[in-house]
Amino acid sequence: MKRSYLHMALAALGAVSLLAGFALVVVFYMARQPMLAIGALAMIAAAVWVYVSPRFYAWRYVVPGIFAALLFIVLPMAYTLTIGFTNYSSAHLLSFERATEVLVGRTVTSGEGMSFKLYPEQGGAHRLVFADDNDHLFTTGPVKLGKAQRVPVAPLAAEPQGEAATLKDVIALKAGLSELTAVMPDGTEMRLSSLRRFSAMHPAYARNKDGSLTDAADGSILTPDFKRGNWVRANGEAVEPGFRVYVGLENYVQIFKDQRFFEPFGRVFGWTVSFAGINTVLTFAIGILLATAMNWDALRYRNFYRLMLFLPYAVPAFISIPVFRGLFNENLGEINMVLDMFFGVRPSWFSDATLARSMVLIVNTWLGYPYMMILCMGLIKAIPSELYEASALAGAGPLTNFFRITLPLISRPIAPLLIASFAFNFNNLTLIALLTNGAPDYLDTQVPVGATDLLASYTYRIAFQDSGQNYALACAIASIVFLIVATLAVVNLRLFKVNDANA
């Protein structure tokens, strides 16, 4: 009986998952993403095949992990790499077709217009009465405001009876009036231009048979430039909005050949490598020294000390880092108050580049040493106690035990974790974003970059804080960072043969 209930529950879960998957396919298709819809449909079909066919029974346990890797790792990375080969930015957000539609749908207001009055009607409708400069009257039928609509306008002999809506009422109905297009008897379209006036609207650009556009204002011809991603005039002037185009390796060439980007990139890359390396060494050094002390048999209250030393790792970084930002405050921070009291100095932690980098290293070492301490404590526990007993009989001291027994025996198992720690610190965006936000900024660069920026924060600033918001260039830098971290992972696996069961 219990087994049948379990089968029913699994069947119900499978049905719900299948419906959710098909709903996702529909969402992708409605969002005009046919390739994503096809990919989702293929994944659903593969999952159904694996879970229904007895031939693929063993694959049932690994399919969820494979799909998760594809969805959360492969797909975002592939999308990032693809964007890196385009000109995607705040000025080139749209596709070519959508940018063209925006230009063709753009309208301009001419000087022609009419004043209007609004008269309430039954059922919540309103009637608009227009008057031109010669006091000729025109009127619409009863109109319910609140949606985009085109309303025909007919001549009117005399002004209607009743009181017109006050200016306060017109202001309350402005949103609905803005969506109204009044079509005059001669076909002229008029839109709301002020709280008391409708003005004639004309298309700003007209589409030509050869695919070009004509500017209604001056008659100039616009043609698409698929290298720049813009509609351009004959004199080369670009018209916004731009559109996305593939530019090949242009972003990567720009990083290494354009002095505006290469110089700050080189500075940030050097600091990133230094930060990751120094922090890995510091956290490991402090961690192994504390782990060795915590394994001293004569130490009393070891559990209490372990708990206290573990606390920095237990508190979330998004809480600890702002606390340190306040402690290092140059004017009101407790650290400067203590230094001023005993030594008469108040360091400029956020203004001086060297001090800012030192502060970043101090804070990240505080946050990272408990992790290394825990790893080293476990590895030291695995060392046979007989080795230390034999060393004691030979008259060796603590330093000899540390450098001849402890450190050599834990160096091989800890080395892959040190490389992983280096890779993690290479992308430590959280620390920089919450502590310094890259400050102090360099004053001799054309892109936003600071002395404490890592490659991850530098990429973030280019993508979201620079005036151009160059997403494509940021994706190109992110791709380079990915290659570096991926290389570290391969070295980690090959050098220490983690995947070799016989190693």
UniProtKB/TrEMBL annotation:
Alphabetical keyword list: Cell inner membrane, Cell membrane, Membrane, Sugar transport, Transmembrane, Transmembrane helix, Transport
GO molecular function annotation: ABC-type maltose transporter activity
One Pfam family recorded for the sequence: MalF_P2
Keyword Transport (UniProt): yes
Highest rank taxon of the organism: Bacteria
InterPro entries reported for this sequence: MalF_N, MalF_P2, MalF_P2_sf, MetI-like, MetI-like_sf
Membrane topology: Multi-pass membrane protein
Domain ABC transmembrane type-1: 269-492
UniProt GO cellular component terms: maltose transport complex
Keyword field contains Membrane: yes
Residue ranges crossing the lipid bilayer per the database entry: 33-52, 59-79, 268-292, 304-324, 359-380, 414-435, 471-493
Biological process according to GO: maltodextrin transmembrane transport
Subcellular location: Cell inner membrane; Cell membrane
Quaternary structure and interacting proteins, as annotated: The complex is composed of two ATP-binding proteins (MalK), two transmembrane proteins (MalG and MalF) and a solute-binding protein (MalE).
Function: Part of the ABC transporter complex MalEFGK involved in maltose/maltodextrin import. Probably responsible for the translocation of the substrate across the membrane.
Family: Belongs to the binding-protein-dependent transport system permease family. MalFG subfamily.
Name of this chain's protein: Maltose/maltodextrin transport system permease protein
